[in-house]
Amino acid sequence: MEALAGYQYALKCYERSLGPLHDDSISVMCKIARLLHDLRRYYEAELMHRRSYEGFCLTIGETHPKALEECHQIAILLWKQEKLEEAEVFAEKTITGKIGQFISNISCLFTKSL
User: Fold this and answer.
1) Which of 13, 19, 20, 51 has its CA 20 to 30 A from that of 57?
2) Where are the domains of the chain?
3) pTM of the model
4) Is there a contact between 102 and 90 (Cβ–Cβ < 8 Å)?
5) What's the CA gap between 29 and 48, in Å, rounded?
6) SS3 breakdown of the chain: % helix, strand, coil, rounded to 5?
C-alpha cells in the first residue's frame, strides 16, 4: 500500500509539473495500474490503464507498442471482470495492431534487402 501511495504522489507531481500527457506521467499511470491489478483491484486498474492508453494514443499513436500493451491490459482486466464483449473489442484492437506492426517490420526487412 505504501508503494501505491508513493506512485499516486509521484503522478500528482508529474502531472502538475510536466503535464498529464508527458511520457513520465503516463509511465507512472501504467505502474499504478499494474500495482492495482496485482492487488486485485481490477476496476481501478482498468480505469488507470484506460487513462494511460488514451494518453499514449494521443502522444505516440494507437499502434505504438506501449499503447498496444495498455490495450492488452485493458482486455485482460475486462475479462477478469466478466465484461466479455468489451474485452473482445480491446483484444481485437491489440491483435490488429500487433499484426500491423509485424507486416510493417517485414516490409522494412524486404525493402532493405533489395
Assistant:
1) 13
2) 2-113
3) 0.88
4) no
5) 6
6) 85, 0, 15
